[in-house]
Amino acid sequence: MKRIKIGSLEINSYVYIPPMAGVTDLAFRKMVRMFDKETLIATEMVSSKALMFNPNQSLMKLSPDEHPVGIQLFGHEPEVMAKAAVLAEEQGADFLDINMGCPAPKITKGKDGAALMREPELAVEIIKAVINAVKIPVTVKMRLGWDECQKNSPDLAKRLEDIGVCAFTIHGRTREQGYTGNADWEAISVVKKSTSVPIFGNGDVRTPQDAKKLIEITECDGVAIARATMGSPWLSMQINQFLNTGSFSPEPSLSEKLDIALAHLDELIKIKGEYVGIREGRRHLINYTKGMPNSAQIRAQIGQINTREEAYNLLSRLKEELTNLVKRINLVKNTEMSEFDLISTN
Ligand SMILES: Cc1cc2nc3c(=O)[nH]c(=O)nc-3n(C[C@H](O)[C@H](O)[C@H](O)COP(=O)(O)O)c2cc1C
To answer: Are 208 and 239 in contact (CB under 8 A)?
Structure first.
């Protein structure tokens, strides 16, 4: 296993699960850690400004057994970002990630997120202030640039590396593209060539094979995988296995996936209470059941659940339907194949 050095932090993983607002909370990170103790992972983005009013934001709460973990901050005021960085360091974060990639208008209109790519002088000022304020490594997550005419990520990354940024995640799209089209992995390779610190290539990696291809094309040190981990917290483990050995363990059976989905929901309820846990858990249950045979109707009903009991009943019903389906297939095929394995979706 290649060790990646992010300043003073050394990791045994090719994978970074980057921040996803509304997804990479404590419960989600706990599910990832069930499969993979080494993957680099980060919190949802945290507003530096909001931290000035409420320094005890639950978004920054870390668990002692989830390291290596980073906290992502967004904002555009150097002093505020520096103060927020100190608060994040006090929470026990192993690294600080600065958001220079969020394309959402409500973020960029305040010069936050991807808007900082259009303000390189301000970006430098912010990063200097943050680096001076903390001892932990500082990383930056950015896009290729603001739009097609302003793809300045290679120059900006070089400037930020020169003042002490320890690693970058580069999402192969511009702010203008949002999530449309395909991530441009060739363009990520230009950023890799312009810097000497670790780069995590990001965008459209869905499988271990995709991860290998991205690394081959970009020569990046690792991959950052966001959306594909939703409902698949075992994916980073499979990717690390594949990059290390050329093969990877099969994903959990459909039955196991439903158990994992319920465990995730229970974790959310434990942390946030049943009311919030169920509402936030709906999207995760939908993600876990995507692609399962006969699940469309159940998924429509997941949107309506209000209690843990309703969730449990729905998933149990799906489990039973899948079991019956397998039995019918087995009857037809007269095979000895194990329950669920037969229709396991990859
Ligand atoms: C629901 C969602 C929330 C996200 N929130 C953040 C965020 O808080 N900070 C950030 O830097 N990127 C955020 N992203 C962007 C992802 O980290 C990642 O860069 C992007 O999804 C592309 O990677 P992928 O193709 O592997 O999904 C978010 C993406 C999604 C889908």
So the answer is: yes
Is the CB of 84 within 6 Å of ligand 1?
Answer: no
pLDDT in tens, 212-265: 999 999 999 999 999 999 999 999 999 999 999 999 999 999 999 999 999 999
The Å distance, Cα 209 to ligand 1 centre, comes to 20
> Would you state the structure tokens that stand for residue 337, as one six-digit string?
């194949």
Question: Using an 8 Å Cβ cutoff, are 315 and 261 in contact?
Answer: yes
Strand pairing of 9-11 and 4-6?
A: antiparallel
**Best of 15, 16, 17, 20 for a ligand 1 pocket test (most atoms within 8 Å of beta carbon):** 20
Ligand 1 atom nearest to CA at 202:
23
Cα–Cα nearest to 259, from 281, 285, 238, 277: 285
CB atoms within 10 A of CB 328: 10
Q: Which helix (H) or strand (E) holds 192?
A: helix 185-194
Q: Which domains does the chain have, with CATH numbers?
A: 4-245 (3.20.20.70), 254-343 (no CATH)
- Examine the residue annotation and report whether 220 is marked as an active-site residue of this protein: no
Determine which residue's CA is closest to atom 2 belonging to ligand 1: 20
The pTM is what?
Answer: 0.94
* Cα-to-centroid distance, 19 and ligand 1 (Å): 6
Atom of ligand 1 nearest to the CA of 97: 11
Whether the Cβ atoms of residue 94 and residue 72 lie closer than 8 Å to each other: no
